[in-house]
Specification:
By secondary structure, this protein is of the alpha+beta class. It has 3 helices and 6 strands, in the order E-E-H-E-E-E-H-H-E. It has a domain of 65 residues. The strands form 2 sheets. A 4-stranded antiparallel sheet has the order 5-4-3-6.
Length: 102
């Protein structure tokens, strides 16, 4: 038996189910850099179910690092993911070739 932040008591089976759901959700999300094919602008994109879920950009060259992407060191911009999803054919994955000094 567990007591939640709300004071509600949860059975072990309920807690197991919530933990399982949280693990599945975490596996479903991953971060990528997307590069606009014509302009070369790079965006940080949190992807869920093969679609942009959160996004930031365009980014400065020095912001495009593996560390920033792994730790999501960006402030997302409202509605940018909608634009990216609507224009996804205009973007490709951007590979990080080297780290930039902070």
């Amino acid at each position: 038996m567990y007591v939640g932040y709300d004071g509600r008591e949860y059975e072990d089976s309920e807690m197991d189910a919530m933990r399982r759901d949280a693990r599945e959700e975490a596996r479903a999300l991953h971060n990528e850099y997307w590069k606009h094919l014509s302009s070369g602008e790079v965006y940080a994109v949190m992807v869920k179910d093969e679609r942009a879920y959160l996004a930031a950009g365009p980014l400065a060259h020095t912001e495009v690092t593996a560390k920033n992407l792994a730790e999501w060191n960006f402030e997302y911009e409202a509605d940018l993911e909608d634009w990216l999803n609507e224009n996804s054919d205009d973007f490709g994955l951007h590979e990080i070739r080297e780290e930039h000094p902070s």
